[in-house]
Amino acid sequence: MLDVPADEVSKAFRGVTRNYQKYAKLPGFRPGKVPEAVVRRRFANEIRKEVIDSLLPERFSNGVRELGIRPVGQPQVTEMTIEDGQPLHVKAVFEYLPDVSIDGYEQVVVEKPSVEVTDEEYNHELTQLRDSRAVVEPVEEDRAIVDGDWVEISYTGKMTDDPEAAPLTGEDALVEVGGKETVEAFTQVLRGAKPGQELQAEVIYPADYPEARLQGKTVAYDLAVKAIKKRTLPELNDEFAKELGNYESLDDLQSRVREHMANRKRRSIEAETKDRLFASLVQKYEFPVPESLVQDQIDARLERGLRALAAQGMNPEQMRKLDLTRLRGAQRDSAVAEVKAHILMDKIADKEGVTVSDEELEKELQLAALQSREPYETLRQRLTDDGGLARIREQLKREKTANLLYERLPA
What we know:
This protein is an alpha+beta fold. Helices cover 52% and strands 17% of the residues. The longest helix has 35 residues, at 250-284.
């Protein structure tokens, strides 16, 4: 609640009105000569708004500073009376960040797995590289299909619970009978078949199937077997390394593969470990969070999810059928945890004296400009105007704080 004395309100009205008198252009009056009464009547709403803008922001800032709190978002005015010659009375509500104690955060630890690449992981990577250069050749002998064969098929699939959906079709598709990536229903009908046969298979896709449009769906397929083929893997030698890319020898390839794997595994384990550390911190400290921050986080999570669905092939019509209310509800717990983790990282950053230099911020902006293909100055101005620079600096500080906590974890 804020109250401004009547004399200050009158002074503000006089100042704003004089400014309008000076620049107002009205028919029948010379510039700067419009009577005060006319100006007040003609520009009543505009004057009132400027008076409010001149009196409230600084007083609001001083008020929350005296309370020792950090507001979130803009205050919502619930009651206001303003009239020239009368005290200004304002009542507003706003959310603010909770005062959280982080005592004992140094003792919160989680397991920190080794980032060393194992021989098994390395050999699997080499096998995948060989698979990428495998030669597929037809099997000439007249025989039935067995596990391990690659079969060339054409197919048409119809969703049994959505007859209006577009059919799934494929021509000259290769599937490995008994392979890890082949659905079991295909393996069962193809095993023992021969080229030229036409088969039927019904596939019930699990709810967590990677392709979004097939999750939890049942599809009836008509298959046409065209040919049996075999895949031959190349030998691991210098020639193979040179065919893969800019490698001088097999030793050069193997060394760079290990280096790439080490970097990838380190990033993956570091991210997973930090997530577990955040979860442990959130569990340790119980505190309420501003609802507006939770809703913003839900919005961000939904936006990422919808972009992923679009990338997987979901069209706008299918997206319009999504139950967004249910999806928002499903995201709430995760969003609350993320907001709490952000608040805790900010508190720990202040405790640890973590800061982000202008050079670090500029480096991040240069990278963002390259990734978005937006001119650097345009990007910087846009982020300055919409408050994005402060958000990026805030996120960088959280990342530095998380790195600090991660490095302190016992190996």
